Amino acid sequence: TLAKHVMNIHMNALQATEVEGEMSLELLKKYIAFCRSRCGPRLSEAAGEKLKNRYVLMRFGVREHELDSEKRLSIPITVREALLTMNSPHIMQLEAVIRISESLAKMQLLPFATEAHVDEALRLFQVSTLDAAMSGSLAGAEGFTSEEDHEMLVRIEKQLKRRFAIGTQVSEASIVQDFTRQVCKANFQFPSHG
C-alpha cells in the first residue's frame, strides 16, 4: 500500500542518515586505534613546500601586527629565527601544524599528508592559536608571554636559584611567603609618623 511505501522510504532514510551521520564514540575509538596501527603518514614534498611558504607568510602577518600594535608577540618573525632557537616554542608550533597535517592524513589512511591537509591544519592553527595570541588571550601560556613578563619571570627564577640550593625541597607555600615578604618590603613604603 501507499502508506507502507511512504513509511519504508522514511524508515530507510533514517537508517541511511544514521550511517552517514555521527559515529558512536565506541566506533570512533576503534577507528582511531585502527588508523594508528595501520599508517604513519609524513608530509609530501608539495605539502612541505606549501607549509614552508604559508608559515613565512603567517610570520609576516604577525610582524605587521607587532609593528602596528608596537607589541612583540613571541612567535618568531622568520623561519631562520626559529631555526636559530631550535628549542623554542616557535618550532613546537610549526611541529604542531605538521603533526595535525599528518593526523588528518592518518584519519584517511593515507601514506602522505597532502596540501589539503596542510591547509586544514593551518586553518585550525590560525583560528585557535594566532587569533588568541594577537588578541592577548594567551598571556602566560608557554611561548606567548610578553617580553616584560618574561623578564620578570627570569628575575624570579634567578632569585629562586640564589635563595634555595639546587636539590633542596621547599614547599610552594614557603616560597610564596618568602617572595611575598620580599616584594612587600621592596614595594611598600610605610607612612611616616609625625
Describe this structure in words.
Pfam families: MCM5_C, MCM_lid. One of its GO terms (biological process) is DNA replication initiation. Residues 155-182 form the MCM5 C-terminal domain. InterPro entries: MCM (IPR031327), MCM5_C (IPR054125), MCM_lid (IPR041562), P-loop_NTPase (IPR027417). Residues 26-128 form the MCM AAA-lid domain. The model is unreliable at 73-89 and 188-194 (pLDDT under 50). The protein is built from eight helices and two strands. The chain is mainly α and 194 residues long. The protein has helices at residues 2-20, 25-38, 45-69, 79-84, 89-107, 115-135, 147-163, 172-187, and strands spanning 42-43, 112-113. It has a two-stranded parallel sheet with strand order 1-2. The protein is elongated, with a radius of gyration of 26 Å. The protein starts with a helix and ends in a 7-residue tail after the last helix. Helix 3 runs parallel beside helix 6 and helix 5 packs across helix 6. It folds into three domains: 2-38, no CATH class; 42-144, no CATH class; 149-187.
DSSP strand count: 2
User: How much strand content do the residues show?
Assistant: under 5%
SS-derived structural category: mainly alpha
Count of helical segments? 8
Q: How would you name the oligomeric state of the polypeptide chains in this document?
A: single chain
Can you tell me the overall shape?
Answer: elongated
Percent of residues in helices: over 70%
Order of helices and strands: HHEHHHEHHH
Largest sheet entry? 2 strands, parallel
Rg from C-alpha positions? 26 Å
Give the tally of structural domains: 3
Domain MCM5 C-terminal: 155-182
InterPro entries: MCM, MCM5_C, MCM_lid, P-loop_NTPase
GO molecular function: 3'-5' DNA helicase activity; ATP binding; single-stranded DNA binding; single-stranded DNA helicase activity
Domain MCM AAA-lid: 26-128
